[in-house]
Specification:
This protein is mainly alpha-helical. It is built from 15 helices and four strands. The two termini are 33 Å apart.
């Protein structure tokens, strides 16, 4: 029952996490677009009220006219819409999902099978959580010290890039590849939500409180909130890549997986820069940002070329019947031991049957030989969450078994 309940928790939390993440990313992207697309108001009354920018838009059969006040409006309305629960719910659901998917079974998903005695499951959980906390503290410290100095944005950007590279290297050498990629996404997402919780929303509340009390408004709160909001938009595409990567074993199941992760995160940030600046280009504020998009695309193409598979031998189109094993075929009994040790926990008729694949009988195995070859040999994705748990010799055994006819004869 534990596995069944965890599966339902995983599904429902994943559903909630994706929905709230869409809402958070969507609102973040919209406000970055809005700030980049505002133009000085043409109406004299708006300028007198302190409006610094306006935008006319059409959507859903209606016309919209958002305006932005420089520091504060002349009169604070009774109702303000706050954008923070999208961030908080995304982080809370994501952390819960991380808990039920990885931390709950840390001995399987977080302990590196290449060196299982290096650390215990509790130590693996502590180390994983430390990645989230320590990165935020270092990143926040960099922003505090250098954020408002001369060329502060460039300095912070360079230092955060170095920090991400170090974290990626450490994560990929401490944890299995799949867990390392996911933890890097969780690490950046934690800092994004922490930016909202510790800086953006408190700063906005301070401004609102000052307005209600009739006190002067310090513009520094708006500047700090804007800075952290911009950082969040550059983190977004790297986070999404890291979260999606656990479905593609060939990304993280190789020696230099940390370089793959750094390259793809860098490409995502560069492409996001293109979209941020293109709105300003349309208004004549900056040059066309196509070089950023080109750099991002070239990095992605470089990773694709680097990870391309080598020539594959001709494999059996269909498995040989159980009663007619091919000459020199790998005995089914040998691969059955591998399935029993690594696979039937999630693929059996009596327990779980993920993807409706059962590997605890020759008859069931015979129906899924092509899937087994694809997932175990080509993609190297299985066992899910801990693909390094299957040794190179065991994968080679499955490969030779399939290529020699995939017989399921005793």
């Amino acid at each position: 029952m534990e596995g069944y309940i965890l599966d339902w928790a995983n599904l429902l939390l994943r559903w909630l996490h994706v929905i709230t993440a869409i809402a958070w990313v969507g609102s973040s992207f919209y406000f970055v677009f809005l700030d980049s697309s505002l133009t000085p108001p043409e109406d004299e009354d708006l300028r007198k009220q302190g409006v610094s920018g306006e935008l006319w838009a059409v959507h859903g059969g209606g016309f919209y006219h958002p305006v932005k006040f420089n520091v504060s409006p002349p009169k604070l309305p009774d109702h303000l819409h706050w954008f923070y629960w999208e961030s908080y719910t995304t982080w809370l659901s994501g952390f819960a999902l991380l808990t039920v998917s990885y931390l709950w079974n840390a001995n399987i998903y977080l302990v590196n099978p290449a060196d299982p005695n290096a650390m215990s499951a509790p130590l693996a959980v502590f180390t994983a959580l430390s990645f989230l906390a320590v990165f935020w503290l270092l990143y926040d410290g960099i922003c505090r010290v250098f954020g408002f100095k001369k060329h502060g944005d460039a300095i912070v950007g360079a230092m955060v890039l170095v920090l991400v590279c170090i974290a990626a290297y450490l994560a990929c050498h401490i944890f299995p590849g799949q867990a390392a990629f996911l933890l890097m996404g969780a690490m950046l997402a934690t800092s994004m939500s922490a930016n909202v919780f510790f800086w953006i929303i408190p700063g906005q509340r301070t401004v609102v409180r000052a307005l209600k009390n009739g006190d002067p408004v310090d513009p520094v709160y708006g500047k700090r909130g804007k800075q952290r909001s911009v950082h969040n938009t550059y983190f977004t595409l790297p986070v999404l890549f890291a979260m999606l990567s656990n479905h593609y074993g060939w990304l993280y199941n190789q020696k230099y997986n940390w370089l793959v992760l750094i390259g793809m995160m860098f490409a995502g940030a560069a492409i996001r820069q293109f979209f941020v600046l293109r709105h300003g280009h349309k208004l004549g504020r900056n040059k066309h940002p196509w070089p950023y998009a080109l750099i991002g695309v070239l990095v992605i193409l470089g990773v694709i070329a680097w990870l391309r598979p080598g020539p594959q031998p001709v494999v059996a189109a269909t498995p040989a019947p159980a009663s007619q094993p091919a000459a020199g075929a790998v005995p089914y009994g040998e691969v059955a031991k591998v399935f029993a040790q690594h696979c039937v926990l999630c693929h059996s008729a009596t327990g779980l049957a993920q993807k409706n694949v059962k590997l605890d009988s020759p008859q069931e195995v015979a129906q899924h030989t092509q899937q087994i070859y694809q997932q175990v040999v080509v993609l190297r994705k299985m066992p899910f969450g801990n693909p390094e748990g299957l040794s190179a010799e065991e994968r080679d055994l499955v490969k030779r078994w399939f290529e020699s006819g995939a017989s399921t004869a005793p």
